[in-house]
Design brief:
Aminopeptidase, alpha+beta, 28% helix, 183 residues, 5 helices
Length: 183
């Protein structure tokens, strides 16, 4: 017999597939709306959707992960060997150019955690898997566009703030920062 307490932390990480896109989109929307509340105004949260969301190319490239707690998607995120720094399929300014691992940094992309499952190591699982995969592809460094809500987590993972800026694709500017790490 398995007791409820024994079932608590059954987390599994796997590459995302096309059949996960609906669950990923729902998780992203929930995470943006809830986890940004202490960092952004309501108007900035709404504007965030112009620059955040699902990038199907990450799934196609096999560089995007899902973390499941049994049958519940509790986290997603990944890395990319392409030039696009952030954004979903709908976002402006995407660039599918393949990066040169000798001279350019791979990207950490689209990290989201379910608000009810934060501080359980889900983001760390995804970051570690992404860093290992980027390293295996010859990359020596990583960069990302981090939200203010994500910045403290990435600092604990060894990333440093390179610059702070604003995404102006939405109705109001949304603060972001470029964070970097040498592998």
């Amino acid at each position: 017999m398995i007791y409820a307490g024994q079932m608590k932390n059954i987390l599994s990480l796997r590459l995302a597939c096309d059949s996960d896109t609906s669950a990923i989109s729902s998780l992203m929307n929930l995470s943006i709306r809830v986890l940004q509340q202490d960092y952004l105004t309501d108007e900035q949260i709404e504007a965030s959707f112009a620059g955040m969301g699902l990038d199907g190319r990450l799934i196609e490239d096999g560089t995007y992960f899902c973390v499941w707690d049994r049958d519940i998607l509790v986290g997603c995120g990944g890395w990319s060997y392409r030039a696009t720094l952030y954004g979903g399929d709908h976002s402006a300014g995407r660039d599918a150019r393949v990066l040169d691992p000798e001279t350019e940094r791979a990207r950490i992309r689209a990290m989201y955690t379910h608000p009810d499952h934060t501080r359980r190591g889900i983001g760390k699982m995804i970051i570690e898997a992404s860093e290992a995969a980027a390293r295996a592809h010859g990359f020596k460094a990583l960069e990302m566009a981090a939200t203010l809500a994500g910045k403290p987590f990435y600092l604990t993972c060894g990333y440093a703030v390179e610059s702070e800026w604003e995404d102006t694709d939405g109705a109001v500017p949304v603060p972001l920062c470029t964070m970097v790490k040498t592998l």
